[in-house]
Every structure is written in C-alpha cells, then in structure tokens.
Amino acid sequence: MKPLYALTMTLLAMSLSAGAAPGQVHVSTPATSLLIDASAGEAPRFLYYGARLAADDMSSITEAAPKSFAAYPVYGSYPEKESAMSVTHPDGNMTLDMAVSDVTATGNPDGSQQTVVTMTDRRYPFTLRLNYLTYPGEDVIETWVEAENTGSGTVRLDRFMSGYLPVRNEDVHVSQLYGTWANEGRVEEARLPHGLKVIKNKDGVRNSHTAHAEVMMSLDGPGRERDGRVIGAALCYGGNYKLMFDTDDSGYHHFFAGINEENSAYMLDPGETFVTPPLALTYSTNGMGGVSRNFHRWGRNHKLAHGNEPRKVLLNSWEGVYFDINQAGMEAMMTDIADMGGELFVMDDGWFGTRYPRDNDSTSLGDWTVDTRKLPGGIKALCDAAEERGIDFGIWIEPEMTNTVSEFFEKHPDYVINAPGRDLVQGRGGTQLVLDLANPEVRDMMVNMVDTLMAANPRIDYIKWDANAPIMSHGSKYLPADRQSHLYIEYHRGLRDVIDRIREKYPDVTIQACASGGGRANWGMLPGFDEFWVSDNTDAVQRIFMQWGTSYFFPAIAMASHISASPNHQTRRILPLKFRTDVAMSGRLGMEIQPRDMTDEEKGQTRRAIADYKRVRDVVQTGDLYRLLSPYDGKGVASLMYVDSDRADEAVFFWWKFVQECAMDIPRVTMDGLDPDRLYRVEELNRIDPTPLPYEGKTFSGRFLMDHGLEMYPGHTGEWNAANDWSSRVLHLTAAE
C-alpha cells in the first residue's frame, strides 16, 4: 500500500521565513517566535517558543536545544505519554502515525499571517491540519487543529486538544483563576509539580465560575508584574474545557489545552471536518503585566464587540427592586440615573409572563411577553420615558432557559435537555431547565424571540443576556442515540450560531454576557458580546480581589463594575460611598442600587464622580493596565493604574486601603507606564476631603513617579463623626504642556 502522504506531498525546498533552515516553519510576531520543524514526510517537531529569534539563531536552534517533541502529539507509538489527539478508526485501530504532507503560509491584508501544516496518516484516510494565526499588533498567536475524515467509515475522536506546548522544567510557576458563585476570578499561583495538574470545567453552559481556561506560566520563579519571562495561554472556548500540565521524566512540562473530552467522544463522519477552538498564546519579558496588556489589546481589537468604543454609565434595576418591577418604579429610577449623569437604564428580571407572571425565579422563562399588570404601557412606554430623560434603555433576558411552570414548556417539553427516560432534573427556583441548542428549531426560536422583542422595540440599546443553570442531566431528544456524546459540543455550536445571527442583524446593540455572575468570562464566549458581569457579588472589597484576577486576561472595558448599596446585599459589609465608587470606577462604571434610598448628599457625590469618570473613561476602558500593588500581598492595600496607550500623556491611578490598623505600615506605591521625561500634573478625582492633597495641581516627572511614587494619605479629612476605616484615592495624571 502506497503511503497516502506521498500522493499529495508538497516538497519544502525553501524555508517559510528568512533565516530558517529547510523544513523549518517560523511563525512570528514583532516580539515573539514559534518555530517548528515541518520536514516533508516526517512528524512535525516543536523547536522553540519565546522571544523573537534572530535569523542566525534559527539555523542552529537544534544544537542549542537538542531535545525536541512532537509539535502536536498523537496517540500511537509509545502511547505511555499524554497525547493531544487520539482516535478510533472504523476497524478498531486506536493509533495515529502522522507525517507532514503540505505547508502553506497566507498573508492577510491586516498584516496577520495564517500558517497551515497539513499531516496525513501513513496508512489511514485521516488528515490533521495545524493552524497558526498571528496577531502582530498584539504579539498573540492562535493555534487550532482541523481533523478531517477522508475515508468511508466513521472515525471516533476520543481526545481533540487545540494545542500543545512543551516548557522546560526549571522554576515554572503557574497563575490561574478559581472561585465559585459570588467569589469568581480569585488568583492562585503555585510551582508546577511533578505528575499531572488539570484545570477543567464540566458545567456545560457556563465555564468560568469555578476555574478559568486561561493561565500564565512564569518561567523565572514566582510571577512578577513588571519583569520576567511569562507565557500566557487562553483557550477561546465557552464550553467544557481541560488544561493539563504533564510533568514527566523528560525534563519538561507538557501543556495541553482543548475541549474537555470527558463524555464528549465525537463521531466524525466520512467527509466531515472537526475544528477545535483556538488556543491563544502570548509571551512577554515584561512580566505578567506585559502578558495582560497583550491579551487586553488583542481582546479589544479582535474579540469583543465594539472593543474600543467607550461604554455608557448605567443603572441596573436588579439590586434596587429585584422582581418588584412596575412602570412607575422604572421611570423613577430612570429619572434618578439621568439626574446623576448616567446614560443608560437597564430593566432586569421580572418584566414578563402573562399566565405565569414572573414574580420570582420559579416561573415564566420562555414566555417572553410583557406582564401588562406591571407595565401597562409595555416596553415602548419605557423606551419613551428613557428618551424623554435623555438616556437609553436596556433589558434583561435569559433565552437559553425555561421553567416547568411556563406556557413555553407546556407546549415544547421536548425542547429541554434531560437524560432520556429519566425524571427532569431542575435547577434554580426548583423549576429551571436548559434548552437543547443542538436542536435547530430551538435556535430558530431563540433568534425569533430576540427578533420579536427588537422589532417591537427598536430603541432597545442594551441586552443583559443571562444563563443561570448548568446542564443538569445529560441527554438530547434531538440527537440520535449514537450521538448523545455530542451534546456539550453541539450546545455551544448552537449558541455560537444564535449569537452570530443576532449580532449580524443587530450589530449596534450592546450585549452583556451574564451567567449567574461571572460564569462567561471567556474569550471563546465573548465574541458577539461587549462585556461580562464579573460577579453577582457587588461588595467593593471582594470586587478588588475578583477584578484584580480577572484583569490578568480581560480588559477593563469588558468588566462591568457597579456601585451598590451599603450594607452590601451579599456580604452585609458597610462601606462608604466613596470607597464603593472608587472601586467601581476602575472598570466599566455602573450602578446596582435603588437611588431613592440615597440621600441628596450621596446623589450629589455620585453625580460628581460620574462626571469625573466620563472625563477619564477612555483611558480606563482602553488604556494600558499596570498592576502596582496586589491585594493578595497581605499589606491591606491595592493599587493599579491605566495609561493612555498611544502617547502616555494621560493616566488614572487607583489606590484602595481595605484593612484598618493602628500604626499601620502604608507602603509607597511606585507608578508605571509613564514617559520618564514628561511632567505630569496631579488631580484627585471623586474627592470628598475639604482639604486637597498636598500635591494637588503640582507636577512631577514620569521618572520620579515611577522611581519614587507619591505618599497616599489613608484617612479622609472632615467631620470626626463622619470618619470611617476605609480610604481610597483616584488620581488623574495629565502631561503638562
């Protein structure tokens, strides 16, 4: 039998990059290089990933690092090692033996380049294509795999990772995000151990509550913000995922990332191609902060909807009234947010249901008709009221779900996910169910629902898209018996189809990805969305920790951060308005409060703070982030700043003290990202002290601010009986002409 790869071989007589040796493929951005040996007729080998290689280095790279590994390990010979791809052929053979048959590199008008290394099995009709797409402006490389069945029988994919990266076993520390509901995005860092470390999700619907599909690998010991070699990796997938570090006897950590294959074996039919989600990689010698800034620019420029357009200041009704929706109450909240300088009002849950009114979380999902008892004028009257007040109107929906107590479920009991022959497993409110997005009828219904809402109310400016349940019982009435293992994958294919169709028709609507809080902070989910809800916990102290971790991979423009009530509704912590506001101003500023419960003094203070935020929101939302002092350092203080990314002529510095002790040692924070040779004038924003800071209006060189910093004054002056144990500062730095 003649090997299949020989039938389609493209001889690689020259390198795909200047300086590379024959057979070498150099995938590069201005600051990074990824080098593989893709010699024809051989399995491709990984050679290097890191700082940009000089041309002279590429020809001798194998001598500098003689140990190499497969660029994409497959299950076959020597199967004791972990693999990125494993299959079962129609005849039961479980091995792969892949060889390079073609390499192409295509330049795109935006300056990016896509490189494809094609491999074919030496005996079986099975093809793998390794894809590499560069983002030169952000120093990010995406990699993914296409698996094609070119035979006449069905091939079962048992594992199908998006990418693999070997990392030398030296002093590598991994930073990851973990948490749970109301405590998402927490940071944990540890040295990679021997054996297997796995980060995974199996929720089915939301994938970033308990863990994240993004990691940082600090190659020089514990991670540092401003210096050190760091690799960042983000799997761009909204469904079940698995990240693995296998540290074996080879002297390397073997990093794999992709869809979680557990209970998700995929039957690849003849002629079908399975495409894995992209794994985004970036590398920086400027520490963890450098990796974050790369991801932020890449996310704003290429992933988020309207990623560089300033977000509006909004008031959301949820914590203000919960399900107690009525027209007069909504209009009163609109009046208040408009008076305080806000630009958008969002009506949350509780506005719909006729036969089964949505008065709590146990009914009505799927019955997307206005409850005219609460809103006699419908959505149109609310849009009119918002327009009269000079603000925009937004609305909450949860299209992926239904309740057993609903007209929708009574009509379509076959549209929900549940194991065949099993009793319904129900979630939130004791009645919630997840719709089966593998079913195209369900997807059409969801698109039609949004269409109907928007057609009747074209002035809706903002949609809060929620998802409050996991897949609770594995089973689809739509998928055939031999394809039940496709459910998790088909759910997210279906959701992507729905979001893409809605976005195509309504490109200008702002859409928030909410999922019981921060369950959808993921670069696979966010294309099509403008932002995400960081957490249902709005407590400002916990938000410092959660937003700090979330900022490792996601920019401020995507992080909804709201001023809420005191005592806080989740923690019952009592915090002053200034502290709550100063934390919220470090993200996309909003409010989650009943304004009628605020005093006139508090409304006036908020009005001034919103006006201050509008002056600097471009810098906060689209500037470069520099994390200065971590809340995880145990000093009771945290600080970060945003710097204008184009000219460094403007910056916003945030400082929060969240521990109070007598004779407390307050560390001085040095700044970062400024032009050392320019002078910057200092102004405090959201100031409540009757006496300005001593350096108010003064100028300092960027070099002084970065080498020395400014002393922070932990207490706020004023009336003794108004003093409290919380303090915060927001400084606006502008380059002096």
Q: What number of domains?
A: 3
Number of helical stretches of at least 4 residues: 14
Specify the CATH homologous superfamily of the largest domain: alpha-galactosidase from lactobacil brevis
Name of the CATH architecture of the largest domain: Distorted Sandwich
What's the overall average pLDDT, rounded?
Answer: 95
CATH class of the largest domain: Mainly Beta
Count the strands? 36
Instruction: Give the fraction of residues assigned to helices.
Output: 10-25%
* CATH level 3 topology of the largest domain: Beta-galactosidase, Chain A, domain 5
Q: Label the structural class.
A: alpha+beta
Profile the largest sheet: 10 strands, antiparallel
Strand percentage = 25-35%
Distance between the termini: 77 Å
Q: Rg from C-alpha positions?
A: 27 Å
Poorly predicted residue ranges: 1-15
* Quaternary structure of the protein: single chain
Shape verdict: globular
